[in-house]
Specification:
The complex is a heterodimer of chains A (335) and B (347). Chain A contains 12 helices and 7 strands. Chain A is α/β, with parallel strands linked by helices. In chain A, α6 links the parallel β2 and β3. The longest helix of chain A is centred in the first third of the chain and has 27 residues. The chains are: A alpha/beta (335), B alpha/beta (347). At the A-B interface, β5, α7 and α12 of A face α11 and α12 of B. Bound molecules: thiamine diphosphate (TPP) and magnesium ion. Thiamine diphosphate sits at the interface of chains A and B.
Chain lengths: 335, 347
């Protein structure tokens, strides 16, 4: 597959930005006492990167609890994301959502989501809007191998197929749902096998290889844009860390397995593939790593300097229209 | 069902350990008791690698069960709540005594139909032909920076449903006794664990004992005002009572324990002596347990009241993420003190 220089730079920059966000932002969030519900996507960078490379701000994605990579790949500003993790008003959600709810409608980012597979119908809905209003947009619904077993996903695959909606169901199969191995919980050998039941293409790719993901996603997006209906794309990948910072993954998986996957690191694979071709140099890649590193320091500074929300913010945005006095009635938040 | 009021062998256990002991003892007593849920053992299917019980439950309440009872009675599930909660209800209707764990109460949306339309209604709709000895373990509580989808305390929506029972233990002793009672009960019971209580220790009798469903308890006697707490809010009430004492306000504290059936009698008896009531609830206020208790007291003890029955609750909003907002969201002792003082002194 021939990719131009700009696309190559874009793919690597996105992946290294995600990696640096996870490696730096998560511990920093922990130091501010908010680490309980933050999930690192380190190791999985190639998936959102390869997919969102085909999307514009007009297209939509629905994300998961492990969604920082989706946000960054969809163009959400890491500085604002950091502010959100720190609970600051400058976050896209004004600090009210945190890691599991980062949403940026201006970028077509329909939110990371704390309930497994709950964002899938939101993406399907965005695809419906696009179809009904002839907007030519596509939507991607991200979910994990655990999410693959939620009823709502299956209902959505059927619905989207029946209605021929421009949506891509993207399973990030990282081998585990918390501590549960995928081979225990999944009835089929692959998640992609299930596409047959909903009469859509089901493709399984190496989710550590951004080029593999990019190519398969390109076909699915093209099919969606052409009005031919949904696809299921399964990307086999790996999360480097525990489910959250409190989880020791060695309680359910082996060191050898971890080493194997680390040896297939998506950034490393990229370097091995691209450098010999000469379109981009190792120096350029190193420089992008440095830029990502600096971006995170800026983001942390920006977040720390941003104000925390004022108390009254608690009542804001529950509804578009609702009597505030009714909400305040009998409640005293001042003490 | 009996309560062991004078235990012979008592030791200090954590809340989470008391839950674990109740499960173990009931599974020992009755081989029809099964338990299922996500990561209740963990690392499922990896026995050949020497991996068993990798997690022992997301909060380690089910640790060790799979070693003792095997993977036919301790069932790790796919991430499919509608399926396994419904399956547990079906098993309970056909000869098992089934326990299912819903990791956080917020996720109940995924499986609510099984609770609302099957578990709660089957016995009635079937003209009494069926019993549903089903227990759903789940978790409530804010204060951990987990935002709106992992922090709810809405036991009220379950209290609202005819056919369901519910309990919310506040300490290790009630955690064990209420879980044993819930499992032995022939009706569906939702058991609410509070995330903020797992590490708390307290005396727990070694032998199995059941605390009757539908009974509240008085954890502090007083004469000037009744503070009713639910789950962790019981300890917010006792903290408030301690703070009120030096002001000469003597507060009685009632720990509700059961959110369905509700022990109106104990609360009304208390209010008849204290003449004032504050219900402290981590849930949101509208159509809440706090509202329900206030209404019942107003109806049945109106003549005894010297002040309006009052509520201290979370606001009518989702749970915010940012620390200062989440701190403000939660009812605290200072708010209870202020409300109680106002009712007693008129200021
Ligand atoms: C409906 C629902 N059930 C359970 C959970 C708790 N939970 C959060 S993440 C997770 C595992 C998700 O696994 P997977 O879909 O494979 O995503 P991964 O964490 O591997 O990225 C579970 C069980 C939840 N958030 N929502
Ligand atoms: Mg997974």
């Amino acid at each position: 597959m021939e990719l131009d220089r700009n696309m190559l730079l874009y793919l690597y920059r996105t992946m290294t930005t995600i990696r640096h966000f996870e490696e730096r932002g998560i511990p920093e969030t922990g130091q501010r006492g908010m680490s309980g519900s933050v999930h690192s996507s380190a190791g999985q960078e190639a998936v959102p990167t390869g997919i969102c490379a085909h999307l514009t701000n007009e297209d939509y994605i629905g994300s998961t609890h492990r969604g920082h990579g989706h946000c960054i790949a969809k163009g959400v500003d890491p500085k604002l994301m950091m502010a959100e993790l720190f609970g600051r008003v400058t976050g896209p959600n004004k600090g009210k959502g945190g890691s599991m709810h980062i949403a940026d409608m201006s970028k077509g980012m329909l939110g990371t989501n704390g309930v497994v597979a709950a964002s899938v119908p939101l993406a399907v809905g965005a695809a419906l809007t696009s179809k009904l209003r002839r907007l030519g947009r596509v939507a991607v619904a991200f979910f994990g191998d655990g999410g693959a077993n939620q009823g709502v996903l299956h209902e959505c695959m059927n619905l989207a197929s029946v209605w021929k909606l421009p949506v891509i169901f993207c399973c990030e199969n990282n081998g585990y749902a918390e501590s549960t191995p995928v081979e225990y919980a999944l009835s089929t050998a692959r998640v992609a096998d299930r596409a047959a039941g909903y009469d859509m293409p089901g493709v399984h790719v190496d989710g550590m290889d951004v080029f593999d993901v990019f190519e398969a996603a390109g076909q699915a997006v093209q099919r969606a844009r052409a009005g031919e209906g949904p696809s299921l794309l399964e990307c086999r990948t790996y999360r480097y860390y525990g489910h959250t910072v409190f989880d020791n993954p060695l309680s359910y998986r082996t060191q050898e397995e971890q080493d194997y996957w680390r040896g297939r690191d998506p950034l490393l694979l990229f370097r091995e593939r691209v450098a010999p071709g000469g379109l981009v140099s190792i120096d350029e890649l190193d420089f992008m790593d440095l830029e990502a590193q600096e971006l995170m320091e800026d983001a942390i500074r920006f977040a720390d300097e941003s104000p925390l929300p004022a108390l009254e913010e608690i009542y804001e945005d529950v509804y578009v229209d609702y009597p505030l006095d009714l909400m305040r009635r009998g409640i005293n938040l001042e003490v | 069902m009996t309560t062991a009021m004078t235990p012979t062998t008592t030791r200090e256990l954590r809340y989470r350990e008391a839950i674990n002991e109740a499960l173990r003892q009931e599974m020992e007593r009755d081989e029809t008791v099964i338990i299922m849920g996500e990561e209740i053992a963990g690392g499922a299917g990896r026995e050949h690698l020497g991996i068993v019980d990798a997690w022992g439950g997301p909060f380690r309440t089910t640790v060790g069960l799979i070693q003792q009872f095997g993977n036919q009675r301790v069932l790790d599930t796919p991430l499919s709540e509608a399926a396994f909660v419904g399956t547990a209800i079906g098993a309970a209707s056909t000869g098992m005594r089934a326990v299912a764990e819903l990791m956080f109460v917020d996720f109940v949306g995924v499986c609510m139909d099984q609770l609302l339309n099957n578990a709660a209604k089957m016995r009635y709709m079937f003209g009494g032909q069926v019993k549903v000895p089903f227990t759903m373990l789940t978790r409530i509580g804010a204060g951990f920076g987990s935002a709106a989808q992992h922090s709810e305390s809405f036991y009220s929506i379950f209290s609202h449903i005819p056919g369901l029972k519910g309990v919310a233990p506040s300490d290790p002793y009630t955690a064990k006794g209420l879980l044993i009672a819930a499992i032995r009960d022939d009706d569906p019971v939702v058991y609410f664990e509070h995330k903020g209580l797992y590490g708390n220790t307290g005396p727990v009798p070694e032998e199995p004992y059941a605390i009757p469903l539908g009974k509240a308890r008085t954890v502090r006697s007083g004469s000037d005002i009744t503070l009713v707490g639910i789950s962790r809010m019981t300890w917010v009430c006792t903290e408030a009572a301690e703070a009120l004492a030096p002001e000469g306000v003597n507060a009685e504290v009632v720990d509700l324990l059961s959110v369905s059936p509700i022990d109106y009698d104990l609360i009304i008896d208390s209010v008849r002596r204290t003449h004032r009531l504050v219900v402290v609830d981590e849930d949101t206020p509208i159509c809440s347990l706090a509202s329900d208790i206030c209404a019942r007291v107003a109806e049945e003890a109106f003549d005894y009241l010297d002040a309006p029955p009052s509520r201290v609750t979370a606001p009518h909003t989702p749970v915010p993420y940012s620390r200062p907002l989440e701190d403000a969201y939660l009812p605290n002792a200072a708010r209870v003190v202020k409300t109680a003082r106002g009712l007693v002194t008129g200021r």
